[in-house]
Design a protein that fits this description.
Layout lengths: L1 H29 L12 H80 L5 H6 L6 E5 L10 E6 L7 E7 L10 H6 L1 E2 L5 E2 L2 H7 L4 E8 L5 E11 L8 E8 L28 H5 L33 H4 L7 E8 L5
The structure holds calcium ion (CA).
The site of calcium ion has 5 residues, from loops.
């Protein structure tokens, strides 16, 4: 539409230019003096005619000038309109590209939504290993969806996607030392602490995650910055009725003598529930919740002691196979993944 308006205006401009050209030619033809001047008597008439002619030609000149001005202004307007139409066209193109961009984004979102639906219906996200297989390969916080079959709510977890191939769901961490692990049965059942800092994932959650054949990996760091690890190819917990009894086997790693074996096949104890195999109350003595025997070969949920204080007590975070019963470690992480995990 803008183009046809521009064309019309241009045609008008050209016509006006032609018209002004014609009047210029007429003016030129009118100016020269007559070739056969009439004799005296009619000279006054000739003079008068000459004056009239001069007037007419000056009027014509004025008209021509005005026409030229008008044409110039018209051409100017046409150019201006043309420019405006270009700007408008640019804007329309821009709007169109934005629209198509939004449209394609909507399509992507719809596609993702439909994929999410098919994923949850056929291939549930169960733990960090299943997230890893869905290409989530960055360590950090993730949310596991609620399990309708088990009637468990959604669960916030920390996934280690790097260590020894990744796919690990972290179930315990000690590294900051500000969170007390001297807690009661209910708190150990549900879990406590901060998922990025020190925490216990919760016995119910660990039970839920170890329904499939599971590997346990324990990473230890001392105050000299040295690191060791212990791995158990078999690890599972019983349910609450069976006091979250620990079953593990097949130790390997660099953490010296196996310091979990002594705790194998024992029930979980807390300060308000003495399920240990001892006359003593191990949870009260070791100030944590753990699978106490009589009492410990390791105490990974013990008291966090800082450098300088870490060799003075027997209720610290201990692993007898490496630093013995009087050395509280600087950092511990317990993590699990399915036995059949493949990168
Ligand atoms: Ca006891």
């Amino acid at each position: 539409m803008m183009k046809s308006a521009v064309l019309r205006l241009l045609t008008l401009g050209v016509t006006l230019l032609l018209l002004s050209g014609k009047s210029g030619a007429q003016r030129k033809r009118a100016v020269p003096a007559p070739k056969h001047p009439t004799k005296g008597g009619c000279c006054e008439e000739v003079q008068a005619l000459k004056v009239q002619l001069a007037n007419v030609s000056s009027q014509l000149e004025e008209l021509t000038r005005k026409q030229e001005e008008e044409v110039r202004s018209l051409v100017h307007q046409v150019l201006k309109l043309d420019k405006q139409s270009n700007t408008l066209e640019d804007r329309i193109t821009e709007a169109e590209s934005k629209y198509s961009e939004i449209n394609s984004r909507v399509e992507i979102i719809q596609l993702q939504a439909s994929q999410a639906v098919t994923q949850t219906s056929t291939d549930a996200i169960y733990d960090c290993a299943s997230l890893y297989h869905k290409n989530y390969k960055i360590s950090g916080e993730y949310k596991l969806p609620a399990d309708e079959f088990l009637r468990t709510p959604e669960l916030e977890v920390y996934c280690d996607m790097e260590t020894a191939g990744g796919g690990w769901t972290v179930i315990q961490r000690r590294k900051v030392g500000l969170t007390s692990f001297d807690r009661d049965w209910k708190q150990y059942k549900r879990g406590f602490g901060a998922i990025r800092g020190d925490f216990w994932l919760g016995n119910d959650n660990i039970f839920r995650l170890t329904r499939q054949p599971t590997v346990l990996r324990i990473e230890l760091e001392d105050w000299e910055g040295e690191m060791r690890y212990a791995e158990y190819q078999y690890f599972t917990l019983s349910n609450e009725i069976n006091s979250y009894r620990l079953l593990l086997a097949n130790y390997s790693g660099t953490a010296g003598q196996d310091s979990m074996r002594y705790h194998n096949n024992t029930n979980f104890s807390t300060k308000d529930k003495d399920n240990d195999k001892c006359v003593d109350d191990c949870a009260a003595l070791r100030k944590g919740g753990y699978w106490y025997n009589c009492c410990t070969d390791s105490n990974l949920n013990g008291v966090y002691y800082r450098y300088g204080e870490h060799t003075k007590s027997t209720d610290g975070i201990t692993w007898y196979g490496w630093h013995g019963p009087n050395y509280s470690l600087k950092r511990v992480e317990m993590k699990i993944r399915p036995q059949n995990f493949q990168q």
